[in-house]
Amino acid sequence: MMISRRALYENACAIRENIPERVRMMCVVKADAYGHGSVEAARLMLRAGADAFAVAIAEEAQQLRDAGVRAPVLILGGGGEAALRAAVAADAAQAVYAPEMLDVLEDEARRRGARAKAHLKIDSGMSRIGVRDGHALDALLAHWRNDCPDVEMEGIFTHFCAAESDPAFTAEQNRRFGAALARVRAAGFAPVVHAAATSAMAGKDFQYDMIRAGIGLYGTLAPGLEGKLSYAQTLSARPVRIQEISAGESVGYGRTFVARRDSRIMTVPIGYGDGYPRILSNRAEALVCGRRAPIAGNVCMDMLMLDVTDIPGANLDSEVVLMGAQGGERITPDELAALAGTIPYEIMLGFSARVRRCYADDLEL
């Protein structure tokens, strides 16, 4: 897997330039920066103007700290007692939505002689985590104010569940969030406010003090930035065999591909054990010599086969691009996701540790 530093940096620059100067940019680097490498991505995004980062768990926050990233980090997910204490140890803010979470953060802050940081999470309609109703919110705020002086409410946030597809419900979520924010401010708190992820960050009503850029940083699904973002990942391999077979012969497990003509079949050493989805069997294509070659038969754990009959120049030295550009062709995560019945997020971050990551030296800063 080749990852373009230039694409990561320029995508972050494009997002930074597309939001008002007063609005901060939090970059989401959870799940190893969607498969792009969280530490390298964070360093590039800092240079592009990132103000803060978001991760999912305390271990991801600690990884950034161990690499020398000192910018604010928010842990977006929930967690048990050990995870909450680890958040304080990592000097990361923790998403909070229950009094018992505050109690753990307060205890750990006192134990360390430090201040814990938290962002209040409001469930405005996602029904995942967060404070949902006004009475629960008022009780939490009273507990926070009276019993947890060593926990700073650094921020308050919510998450829109259908910003790209349901503007009416997104507006309703924003209304609910605004009502919760009013209660928080009336209780004497003044947190940094954020709601919009990539799909809503261009909306002025959703920008507040900060936006959380996620999938757009990696090249896709960013309204208003069409044509300005680039995919950073290229997945490629070299073939290990090319074999001629006769019409009527089959390829792979289950004999799901039967040649209708005399054919040339190329074997490539990557499969679902590497994270290439098996559901792409007989559906997806790869690039060979700048041309598209269809997958022939079922994707195996460690290999897949391509029909290169119509690519006479294909040989054992040919680079096979399974995701990325070659010549005038490109296979995107979005294309593979559509064929697999999933989303590009899952494609980008789904490749296993067997796939060696390296970074293209395509950027001078």
In short:
The chain has 365 residues and is an alpha/beta fold.
Can you tell me about this structure?
The chain is α/β, with parallel strands linked by helices and 365 residues long. The chain is 31% helix and 23% strand. The protein is built from 11 helices and 20 strands. The protein has helices spanning 5-18, 30-35, 38-47, 58-66, 81-89, 99-112, 134-147, 167-186, 204-207, 333-340, 344-349, and strands spanning 2-4, 24-28, 52-55, 73-75, 93-96, 116-121, 151-157, 192-194, 210-213, 233-237, 241-245, 250-251, 257-258, 263-268, 285-288, 291-294, 304-307, 320-326, 329-331, 358-360. The strands form 4 sheets. The protein has an 8-stranded parallel beta sheet. Strands 1, 10, 15, 16, 18, 19 and 20 form a 7-stranded mixed beta sheet that branches. A 3-stranded antiparallel beta sheet has the order 11-14-17, with no helix packed on it. Helix 4 (58-66) packs parallel to helix 5 (81-89) and helix 6 (99-112) runs parallel beside helix 7 (134-147). The longest helix is centred in the middle third of the chain and has 20 residues, at 167-186. It is elongated, with a radius of gyration of 24 Å. The chain starts with a strand and ends in a 5-residue tail after the last strand.
